[in-house]
Amino acid sequence: MEDWYNVTTEDIIKHGGEGIITAFYSCSPTTALKAIYPKHNWMLWRFKKVPNGYWQAVMKDSKQQKEIMDWLGNEHSVKCLKDWYRISIFQIRKWLPIRSSGALCQLLERVYPQHKWERNKLTRLRKVVRSSQRQLFLALKQLFPHNRKDRQLAFKLLGCT
Prior knowledge:
- Helix content is about 55%, strand content about 0%.
- It has helices at about 10-15, 20-25, 30-35, 55-60, 60-75, 90-95, 100-110, 120, 125-145, 150-155.
């Protein structure tokens, strides 16, 4: 089911599905998939193209915003809210069409209002390098979950002493 998030209308047409996708689903893979697999919990934000007006609706729906940010946090191994400071806007743009770190900060403030967000920490320019190092660290931690020495050796070999 995960693979469906990468399928586009063009892919369906290219493989002979133009008649079906056009006649029954308004050229929308998301509409087709929701109809064909109604029991699956589709995360519309993960599709390459979302239905028209989707993001405007999300900005009015705090429950959906929380679901998206919780999922995104899980994807980036956010264990506590302070971990958001270690994720770059570029990493988030892979999943969400957020234009700026200011927009990200507004979203985080709406979803997690109990936390006192430090906007300057969310907008640091050097954070891109640090967030990439964090991703590498988390990947190595998964590869070597119980062996700290192997993890340290891998860091050394990668030049991340």
